[in-house]
Amino acid sequence: MQYLDDRNHLRVEIHTKECSIPDEELVRMQSLLTAVGEAVKDLSESELLVKIIFHSHSDAYHVHLKLKLPGKRLATSEEDTYLDAAFQRGVRKLVQRVEDYKEHPNLRATKVAVNRKALDEDVVAPEDPSAGPLAEIVRKGDYQAFRAALASNEEWLCHRIGRWVQRYPEAEARVGGELLLGDLVEEIYLNAFERFSRRPTAIRFSEWLESLIDPSLKAMLRHPDEERENASLAQTVVEGSPGEKGR
After folding, report:
1. Where do the structural domains in the chain lie, given as residue ranges?
2. Which of 93, 128, 196, 224 is most buried by its number of CB atoms within 10 A?
3. Distance from C-alpha of 214 to C-alpha of 77, rounded to nearest angstrom
4. What does the pLDDT look like over 109-142, one tens digit per residue?
5. How remote is the C-alpha of 113 from its chain's centroid?
6. 48 vs 14: CA distance, rounded Å
7. 2-103 has which fold?
């Protein structure tokens, strides 16, 4: 399926592998992609490629979205046994990446001091996932504010990622090439934002954040070619600001 969102200067292509999508579902997807068009409407012409792959061994759909912007490529992916769930999460994450790109198109990320204790304090992440400042930020859909609230813990998270990558020789060999730690950091934060309201309360917030490293890393390893084109939003975050299944 190919079409042009002329109002928002967005060209869209949707490709499938090992699955077919009913016409009514394609219409729904086109409607959901309006959010991406709205996000890029003030930019010059953009191109969005959507790949949907069904993995029979896991009975799951992999949705990968790759967006070409002026001087930048943004990408994200999601998997779920329900295509609609994976598609919606992927679209939301991609829109957040576009917003970060527009906010800081040319700035590089800088390291900040580690502060794991603050990450676990009730004022940052209370036991009730529906209460507290972070929950309010998530309810508003403000990823920039969410990213900024956790910025002081990025050095700690990078350290944990570095140690975790060492458990996978395949991943360690790719670091600095097709596997960029900055992309992995951003993917973890995006997943944390997406799943915040469903996080467990029996463990500290930092432990839950750390638990997102492994699935995020494995997802990147499963799709190395796609991740090479995934420009890291972590590399566009300015210091102290912000700092991405219905069958």
Report:
1. 2-103, 116-236
2. 93
3. 15
4. 323 323 444 455 433 555 566 667 888 888 888 8
5. 24
6. 8
7. Double Stranded RNA Binding Domain (3.30.160)
